[in-house]
Amino acid sequence: TTRNIVRLHSWSGIPREVRPITWRLLSGYLPANKERRELVLKRKREEYFRFIEQYYHSRTDEHYKDTYRQIHIDIPRTNPLIPLFQQPAVQEIFERILFIWAIRHPASGYVQGINDLVTPFFVVFLSEFVTEDMENFDVAALPLETQRNIEADSFWCMSKLLDGIQDNYTFAQPGIQNKVKALEELVSRIDEDIHNHFKRYEVEYLQFAFRWMNNLLMRELPLRCTIRLWDTYQAEAEGFSRFHLYVCAAFLIKWRKEILSMVDFQGLLMLLQNLPTIHWGNEEVGLLLAEAYRLKYMFADAPSHYKR
Amino acid sequence: CSMGSDDSYNFVFKVVLIGESGVGKSNLLSRFTKNEFAHDSRTTIGVEFSTRTVQIDNLTIKAQIWDTAGLERYRAITSAYYRGAVGALLVYDISKHLTYESAERWLKELYDHADPHIVVMLVGNKSDLDTLRTVPTDEARDFAEKKGLMFMETSALGSTNVEAAFSEVLTAIHKKVASREVTRGSISAVTLSSPLGPSSEAQEERKGCCRS
Predict the structure, then answer these.
(1) A239: which of A17, A152, A172, A233 fits an S-S bond (Cβ 3.0–4.6 Å)?
(2) pTM score, whole prediction
């Protein structure tokens, strides 16, 4: 099928110019059938703005005001170092997207971390209209309809992503608990040294990997790397829900030398919560993904062969 | 010297920061451990951690400060967060009354999970926002007294009382440990043995850089 072909070509990274359309396809937001696309886009965008008309005013209702308050205090703290995200027009877009998503998903509601997940979609869909210096681009200067289309598309693609990982954000966050346990189990099989080192210094995986799962490594990597990573996550079946685990394991092993040379609890935790990825780009992400793929091949597809 | 070298210390005290989202917990942590304040800090996800070594009564104390997300949903992971804690700063924002109203709920959660002898200070942060104050100092002090908590107003932004708040808590912890007011198996065991890792065992025998 068309979608499978797109998947195959996207796994190793999508060229910038075709990334917006490709992401809309891979997320399942746009149909593969070319004739239907325009109509679907139009319908979905209208649907989103009908939600806004119907529900956005309820943010001041007793029932929803806590949700709105939390979103409202988190938005300025989302990507605080990038001027683009300090613009009122952009913050309002994020608030609407997150509020509507939260009230439509009462089982989880708004959970901190979900705010980060809007960013890659917003940036990619905005990139269709910005050629340079996106970080300082004035979004309010775009035609209103363009702004609205970016907003609606970001909402729907983020919703598709979250559909696959909802149990990360439901009460007590069982999806995250399970994935952190799975990471621990996987690391104990692929790198006993690291695993024993953590045990010896009483480092618990939850202490650092909770954030890796909750924010899909977005707090550990520069935004450009997250976008590249999501090319693959969307190309891979169950990318966000399963493949991410192998990426986390590969990411941990990547710092093997630094981890093993740190011989106290304090030093280990400080290292693990501030891993030096600031200069990372496509090359590092590519290597990380290749290693993750190898781990997945060895341990997910034929786990019994490698069990200790 | 007032700061001990990083690997010599007599005690490790684990202190947790709790309170509602947005009251400034992360900035109290960074002000105390790095003397930094970030206007642009991101929301805390899960737990974050930092340390600072201080001198109290000629002893070198390593303060291990744990910061956590203030949002309800995360509390499921926080029993590990409280484990081994001997001190807590329960933080609210003096300009947001709602964050003060929830103090009682946080206190209950703390006592549900932590050592009963834990030293607790109620901290009214953002004292630089005095013109926007909605929580009177006296009201908070009375509440703290009633609950048997220490109390202080701080400003992580203005660097007011942050040092004082942490060192009063650390001193109180040290007094509890030193006076043997608490029995073995309680707070002393928590401070002196394994929750903080093998390197912190038998710390009383270790030599600090500043000991005479």
Answers:
(1) A233
(2) 0.90
